[in-house]
Structures are given as C-alpha cells and as structure tokens.
Amino acid sequence: MRNHVPFGSICTLQNGRAFKSSEWSDQGTPIIRIQNLNNESKPFNYCNFEVEARFQVNSGDLLFSWSGTPGTSFGAFFWNRGKGFLNQHIFRVDVDEKATDKDYLRHAINSKLSMIIEQAHGGVGLKHITKGKLEAIEIYYPDLPTQKHIAAILNKADAIRRKRLQAIDLADQFLQSVYLNMFETSTTDATNKAQLGNLVAIDAPMVDPRDEQYLDMLHIGSDRIEKGTGKLLEAITAREEGLISKKFLFDENYVLYSKIRPYLKKCALAQGTGLCSADMYPIRPLEGKITREFLWRLLLSDEFTRYTESLPTRANIPKLNRKELEAFEFVNPDYEKQQQFSEIVRALNSSLVKFESSANLADQAFSALSQRAFSGELQLSA
Known about the structure:
By secondary structure, the protein is of the alpha+beta class. It has helices spanning 34-37, 102-110, 113-119, 131-136, 144-183, 238-241, 292-300, 302-309, 322-326, 335-373, and strands at residues 4-6, 12-15, 29-32, 45-47, 56-57, 62-65, 67-68, 75-78, 84-86, 90-94, 121-122, 127-128, 138-140, 193-195, 200-201, 206-207, 219-220, 247-250, 255-258, 267-269, 274-276, 280-285, 329-331.
C-alpha cells in the first residue's frame, strides 16, 4: 500500500480547447465552461463543428477547474450532463480505474484546495495554477478497497452537508411563493393605491464613524447584501474598515435598500444597530401603515424592479433617488394581512438561524472527517 504520492503520478490531466467567442453557436454540442461546472442554471454556449476527441467529455468524467475566483471556481467536479466539449482552464482527470477510484480522487484533491490556491498565481480576484504545480501536490493514496471505503463515508457526510445548504436555499423560494400567494392577486386592484413615501420615513441620522461610540459598530455597504434574496453577508466594523466619511445610523426598525443599480435587488432587514453606506436608504415603515417585512419583500419584488427600470438612468450607473423611491405607487394590502406575512417571515428567519448553524457544524464535521481520511486515519474495516 502506497502512502502519499504526487497527484500527477496517478492521473493524466487533459486541458480544454481555447474556444473563441466567434466560434460559439446557439446549437450543437455544449461547450463546458467553468461557470457550467457547479451551476446548472448557467446557459451553455455551443459548438457546431468537429473537435478533436481529446477535448470531448461524457457523463461520469472527473473535471478540475484550475482558474478563477478562489473559494468559488477552483475544484474537482463530476460531469453528469452528457456529451460536451472541454473549454480552456478546465482539466479532464483521467485515471486507471483498476487502481484509482475517481470519487476518492475528487475528495482527495478538493481537500487540498487551500494549498492549491496558495500556489496559484494572479491577482486577488482571479488566480490560476499551472499543470506542473497541480501534478506535484501530494495526496494520501491507499489501496483501491480503502479508497472506495473512504469515498463512501465522505459521500454520506457530504450529502448531509448539502441537504442543510439546500434547505437554506429553499427557504427564500418558499418565502417568495408565500408573498406572491398572499399579495400578487391584489396588485391589479385599483383600490387602496398608495405612494411609498406616505407609508415610510427616511429619517436615519448621519454620524461620523470615527466617533468612539460608533467605531465598533458593523458597517453594511451594498456589497454586504446578497442580490435577489436580501440576505445580509458577513460585515466588519467601522474601525476595521477604517471609515472616515459620514454614514447612516440604523437600528432594527429599518429596512436597508441599496439605491445603486436597483436591478440587483439588494434590500435587507436590519439586524440590530449599525452603520450603512450613503449609497443605501435606511427606510423606516410607519406603524399601522406598512410592516417592515412586507416592505422588505415589496422592494425585492419584480413589481418594484419594473418600476425602477421604467425610470431614466443617470450616466453609466443607474441610481434611484429619494423622490423616485417615494413616488412608487402600489396596492397597499390590508395591514392585518401584512402582519400575518410578517409573522411568517420572523418564524422562518428564526428557523434559518438554526439551519445556518447546523450547516456550519456540518461543514466543520466534513472538514474534520476529510482531514482524518487523508491523513490515513480512516482505514477499511476488517
């Protein structure tokens, strides 16, 4: 039984073809680009001419993306979507299946991603690793039965982890369905029309983030809000960010809306007290007129996006000014019905906190299990 061996000694890496955009077609054989590896919603470009057999990919092939953004693009993936042509910046990983289990190899090389990214060259946002450096990465390489045993254990752990993440993704879809089911039919009703400016206040004070009382508050910029979902991403404090210009001071009564590029749909429910960029509107719903949770989903809705798209743009960066925001007219549903929706949102968000905590634990458990597996601690049971 061998111990640790160079990755390149147990596989052959076939790089993809450099397809030019002028060669793309609307039909033919799919060209597998990095964006297609881990996101089935990304559309294909196609090739309608013959390509060398060495660039062909079929379901079951193991592919490795060796270029892109660290944390999202690098990694090994199984291809399961039929015949395709391999684009540049992706290796097809070919092995002798009598000696090497491809599923094991996928987990093994993915366990080395931190090391691979460290050895990659390029800027902060886009990195590449050379074929030689990737081939030199050493991995734990037991006999075939042990490989299959380890792969089976990791597959089960990975399935649990993925289910946790899927539950989080499905939560937003569920909430969108609830919103449409409760309020979409009323959008064509001519009664109860209202302008947003009569239901909300944009009254958050501007403060100096260098003042001691604000230095350790989290700063929420538009880049800290996930587009489309309204999820708040990890943020850092005013002190850590070295802020010097004035910011809005908000609390848990506000909705935070990014006025830059409205089509990105960046709107979040404020969590606690913090600071937000001047490129954001902290919007406070008026009691008894509109609920915070309904306002949040309204600003994320297609109806509001269509309204912003109907407005004239300014220069190269579309920007929604305060007058335009307040002028948005819509059917304001019964306040009691909005409260019912708000209760659903709060209950779901409470569950999501538990889901995310569970997902983090599952990630940690999978990482710990991988470390054990590829240090030789997981052996085949007798």
